[in-house]
Specification:
It is a single chain. This protein is of the alpha/beta class and about 425 residues long. It folds into two domains: about 170 residues, FAD/NAD(P)-binding domain; about 190 residues, 2-Layer Sandwich (D-Amino Acid Oxidase, Chain A, domain 2), CATH 3.30.9.10. The protein contains twelve helices and 18 strands. The strands form three sheets. Strands 3, 4, 5, 6, 12, 13, 14, 15 and 16 form a nine-stranded mixed β-sheet that branches. Helix 1 runs parallel beside helix 11. It starts with a strand and ends in a 7-residue tail after the last helix. The structure holds flavin-adenine dinucleotide. The site of flavin-adenine dinucleotide has 44 residues, from helix 1, strand 2, helix 2, strand 12 and strand 16.
Length: about 425
């Protein structure tokens, strides 16, 4: 089949890889000049989520204040955003949380296998390392996090619960004073450089026949009917919008993997997903003192701020801002940017003092989609030639590789590589009920 993939982030590139592996001809359309320019560019380094990383559950947005929750709530009385927060808050209840994580787990494991296969096949070097240390500030935070920590055991995810002194002994960069409550060490969880991985995979695809990348063109519309599928392309750079007729590209199937840009495209063909855009930030800071740099990735577990060494820099990621959805396309007011970046600076100063030169750090921001039930939308839509692979949220790097395999199986007509209950929980149509 000829398949168009919209979006050249990790999700689109991984989907193209799996589709090609299944024997299809693929064209990836990306509006930027290269791949990995959206949320994929700003990732914090962790590859696959555990119960402590997902952006839902017992510790997520328990407090409205950003200095406690790590999320700047800038939605005021906006009804859509408030409704979204209410829905995701239901997953704080331990049983609801456990139920959703159960559904997600097979996708995580599928993703782990797909990544391992890609790595074994190509031998990519993308600054991959092992070791994540989740840090918890206070006893109150520990009490909140407890159901998520318990689920690590239930799901047999190898981990060690450490006292503050043990955290410092394991990771010299983390001072035991001022005191904090505890930590959870996940020695086998991996970190790496997501944009680098995405570019390497794209390069590998470039060497294969049957894969094409069309850059610098935005998809402006999707056309689907039972017999065919097509996309409408916007003008090339420098070309006036009304200079000529719309370019249309035909295919047998379309996969939407356009990150935050997916909602508008899908909306036009009647596929409505209640995902909410979340603006997130990174600071890429030069190393101040080499001897203060952590060996593991260090995560502020409740604020969900990740600190990872990348080459000669430290990447500090998180600083989420939740706004009304219609504000996401506009520049963020300076005050909110400062508030979000201050959260990142504080996390670095608290957890790894002396390691990062925050005053010389480069800020970046990007948008990722948060799901009201914590799970992405992966699968077919009411149009049989239209598939989606979106909404992986702030923990989407590794997941995207597994969900790419699921989508490729569905496009091909094979039985998907995850159990039925997971497939059902990922279905884009599940929100209609
Ligand atoms: C600051 C930050 C930190 C993060 N940290 C982590 C982490 O530590 N671990 C983790 O697993 N995940 C993390 N994430 C989330 C992860 O980066 C995302 O889940 C993942 O990158 C999403 O990939 P994607 O390809 O779906 O989206 P994107 O990377 O956003 O790619 C979508 C692409 O589609 C293109 N596009 C959109 N609309 C159109 C259109 N109409 N026509 C053509 N092209 C279009 C865009 O230009 C973009 O390149 C983080 C995200 C952010 C922002």
């Amino acid at each position: 089949m000829d398949v168009i993939v919209i979006g050249g982030g990790i999700t689109g590139v991984a989907t193209a890889y799996q589709l090609r592996a299944a024997g299809h001809r693929v064209c990836v359309i990306e509006r930027h000049a290269t791949v990995a320019q959206g949320a994929t560019y700003g990732h914090g380094g962790t590859i696959l989520p555990t119960t402590l990383d997902v952006w839902f559950g017992p510790t997520f947005m328990q407090q409205r204040r950003a200095e406690r929750s790590g999320v700047v709530s800038a939605y005021g009385f906006n009804a859509g955003a408030r409704d979204f927060v209410k829905r995701i808050a239901k997953l704080r209840e331990p049983n609801e949380f456990g139920h959703q994580f159960d559904a997600l787990r097979p996708l995580i494991e599928r993703s782990r296998d797909e990544l391992a296969e890609i790595e074994a096949r190509f031998g990519f070097e993308f600054e991959q390392r092992n070791g994540v240390l989740q840090l918890i500030r206070s006893q109150a935070e520990w009490d909140l996090a407890r159901p998520a920590v318990d689920l690590l055991r239930v799901h047999e995810i190898p981990h060690h619960i450490l006292t503050a002194a043990e955290c410092s002994a394991h990771e010299h960069a983390v001072p035991a004073d001022p005191p904090f409550a505890s930590g959870v060490l996940l020695e086998h969880e991996r970190v790496g450089n997501c944009p680098l991985f995405t570019k390497l995979l794209r390069q590998a695809l470039d060497l294969q026949d049957g894969v094409q990348f069309l850059h610098g063109r935005a998809v402006t519309g999707i056309r689907v009917d039972p017999q065919r599928a097509a996309v409408e392309l916007g003008p090339r750079d420098g070309e006036a919008a009304n200079a000529r007729e719309v370019d249309v590209m035909q295919a047998d199937a379309i996969v939407v993997a356009a990150g935050a840009g997916s909602l508008a495209l899908l909306d036009k063909v009647g596929v409505k997903l209640p995902f909410h855009p979340l603006r997130m930030h990174t600071l890429v800071a030069p190393i101040a003192h080499e001897e203060c740099v952590p060996h593991s990735t260090v995560v502020d577990a409740v604020k969900r701020i990740t600190i990872t060494r990348m080459n000669h820099r430290l990447r500090i990621a998180g600083g989420a801002v939740l706004q009304p959805a219609d504000q996401t396309g506009k520049p963020l007011p300076e005050k909110l940017t400062e508030e979000a970046l201050a959260l990142l600076g504080e996390a670095a100063r608290d957890w790894i003092p002396g390691a990062a030169k925050i005053s010389a750090a480069l800020p970046w921001e990007g948008v990722t989609l948060l799901s009201p039930d914590g799970l992405p939308a992966v699968g077919t839509t009411s149009h049989k030639r239209l598939f989606v692979n979106v909404g992986h949220g702030p923990t989407g790097w590794g997941l995207a590789c597994g969900s790419a395999k699921v989508v490729a199986d569905l496009v091909t007509g094979d039985s998907p590589a995850v159990p039925e209950h997971t497939l059902k929980a990922l279905q884009p149509g599940r929100f209609k009920r």
